[in-house]
Amino acid sequence: MKIFLCVDAAQATALAGAQVQQQIMRKPESVLGFATGGTMEALYAELIRLHRHQALSFAGVRSFNLDEYLGLSGTHSHSYSHYMHQHLFDHVNIQPQHIHLLQGDAADPVVEAQAYEQRIQAVDGIDLQLLGLGENGHIGFNEPSSSLASRTRVKRLAPDTLAANQRYFSADISQPTHALTMGIGTIMDARQVVMLALGAKKADAVAHMIEGPISARWPASVLQMHPQTTVILDAPAAQHLACQIGRAHV
Ligand code: F6R
């Protein structure tokens, strides 16, 4: 695990953007795994900036998103499909046929999950998987108690995840209680993982992820076993780490 402690969220986000940029420059046909959530919004803004001002091209990139709310169609305003178009896809030159998203309203979610795994295999796996971190240690929607070998499937969202994401829903749009998510085994198959965790609310999960025992209680702790994981933190997110980490020079 390579850990970067940045001076602030802006530096951390720029560093994560640079990791994606380097991956695409090394391999223009990269398969990227994308996450959603508040942390990723600034990162996608950075990727759009790199596309506009440094000619970073997404023309060859193929993408797979981590998760989608069960029951929401791709056009629903609260779907992660909608989020991805709003925050990234509509602003870069990714080819629509290269975008892979889980269908939250699939007639049979079990079949949808299995087909998604096959689509990932068909492109020879994910080169770089972006991850955010749940306050409870989840990655994707692999909530505490998820099998560390799990594959794409339906998961019930934990009460603390529902509470953390309640802010995105209003009284007239009820919050889904389940999601389709890549499994932990699926994420661990990615050749490279870049995790961005920012702010004091993530500090407990960060400490368990980096220093704790590997456990289904803190699913992100399994990343200790991944050979190519980069964790990018700001100071508030790193505050509960017992080990000393030097500042990143970027
Ligand atoms: C969503 C996802 C989640 C989020 C996590 C952090 O696709 O993968 O694991 O990354 O819940 O969300 P924020 O960034 O909103 O704190």
Provide an overview of this structure:
Helices cover 32% and strands 17% of the residues. The mean pLDDT is 96. It has 8 helices and 10 strands. It has a 7-stranded parallel β-sheet with strand order 1-10-9-6-2-3-5, sandwiched between helices. Strands 4-8-7 form a 3-stranded antiparallel β-sheet. The protein starts with a strand and ends in a 12-residue tail after the last helix. It has helices at 9-26, 38-53, 80-87, 109-122, 159-165, 184-188, 203-211, 235-238; strands spanning 2-6, 31-34, 62-65, 67-69, 99-100, 128-131, 153-156, 178-181, 192-197, 229-234. It is an alpha/beta fold. Helix 2 links the parallel strand 2 and strand 3. Helix 1 crosses helix 2. Fructose -6-phosphate is lined by residues 35-39, 66-67, 132-134, 138-140.
- The count of strands amounts to 10
Number of helices: 8
Structural class estimated from helices and strands: alpha/beta
Task: Supply Rg.
Answer: 17 Å
Question: Ends: how far apart?
Answer: 18 Å
The share of residues in helices is 25-40%
Q: Bin the strand percentage.
A: 15-25%
Strand order of the largest sheet: 1-10-9-6-2-3-5
Calculate the mean pLDDT score and round it. 96
Write down the overall geometry: globular
Low-confidence stretches: none
Bound molecules: fructose -6-phosphate
**Order of SSEs:** EHEHEEHEHEEHEHEHEH
Q: Main beta sheet: strand number and arrangement?
A: 7 strands, parallel
